[in-house]
Amino acid sequence: MSERARGEEAAAGKAVAPGAAAVRGTRDILPPESSRWQWVEGVARRVCERYGYREIRTPIFEAATVFTRGIGEATDIVEKEMYLFRDRAGRELALRPEGTAGVVRAFLEHKLYAGPLPVKLFYLGPMFRYERPQAGRYRQFEQFGVEAFGSADPAIDAEIISLGIAFLEAVGLDRWELRLNSIGCPTCRAAYREMLVTELSPRRQELCRSCEQRLERNPLRILDCKEPGCQLLVEPLPGLESYLCSDCRAHWETVQHYLGELGISYRKYPRLVRGLDYYTRTVFELVGTGLGSQDALLGGGRYDGLVEAMGGPSVPGIGFAAGLDRLLMSLAGGDGLPPAAAATDVYVARAGEVPMGAVLQLAERLRRAGIRTELELAGRSLKAQLKVADRLGARFVVIAGEAEWARGLVTLRRMADGLQEEVARTEVPGRLSELISET
RNA sequence: GUGAGCGUAGCUCAGAUGGUUAGAGCGCCAGGUUGUGGCCCUGGAGGUCGUGGGUUCGAGUCCCGUCGCUCACCCCA
Q: Domain residues of chain A, as ranges?
């Protein structure tokens, strides 16, 4: 048997009895960390509420065409990053790689355009892209996104950007940069694209391999290519800004004006093009620090043609998505996080021959009284139980000791100073509520 | 898809040049107090050294395959 054949056999053997492990690019979020997730999600919800955005929950998978048509055939996401599969009836489905296309589909399906505009929505949930995982990039990742349909007013561009910043600030992130650009409408972009093609075509050999392809498929993307050779070629060419039609120019200038009035500082970023085809006019990114090379925390823009392209009426739209994994990561070192809360208020310990059923009842009464209560279930010594109580951060321990139990009493111990008192079993919930609120 | 680094106890890691029973700190369990936490002391449990093969008298250590992780490219959240 060749070495290679052996290797394959080993791999196959492993596939038959796979070790328990989350698949590549996915991960488990375990208790202390899961509370941080609940916290950011709560912040996102509260910020949205303040701005008048309401939650929409769309399916995690959709017909693949929702994304191929929505995001664009020539994008990296559609070309190589989608999780595609067929269900048992042969339907072509995809795990959602981003949120906007699905929200637009729902917007159309439920004819929300027939109601009062603008329709302002937000979503929270996992997205899926088949990419090589690295710092701040997972195959299943969590996004918080916002979409507003039905307003072409530059004011909503400013509002959305301001919402994004409010969110970052609310989670305690103070170091970020807003990058802003306008990529015009199909009309002015076509003119610009034509200029790019005529200027670059004669020197196509000097472009990198992928930009050579982009020249045909998506020339705008050459602008944000990081290859020095490509940059060199693009550098002397005029920016998109000078090609904007009068409407787009007016929009672009007004957005900047409003941002100024909101006191939001930004950097014009003529190279910011973004990887999804549906964007028009305003595009922006909020980038963070300390994130390695995946530094885009939040990105979005206007997509005035998307609803129509997906078969609906001509309704303008704008939105952004924020990567929560990255956000949490950039917060990890800082002090923006809330202190880890104690896991419990009260620990019920058992010493000696005290009936477990009665102790369960006691704990149950405390819990019904709204007191977070933990009890001994492992049969440890009292010493060990107190140690556990301490570790859990319990402020009080109810000691159900054999001696006092026989007299209808239990001992209450305040962990901070070790002060103890004996209390009638029936009065434990009331007394503990008192003691807890005292502090 | 491409490149580089790394896989040793639950966690963080040490194990030059291949050589006896693979170690530490933290954590966990127990004892020191037959009913009292934090500090301290003592003891204990816990390891297919990712995995398959090769070289060798002998492999955690060297070689190859493979899987995984990490970082970077690409791209994006």
A: 21-185+245-332, 346-438
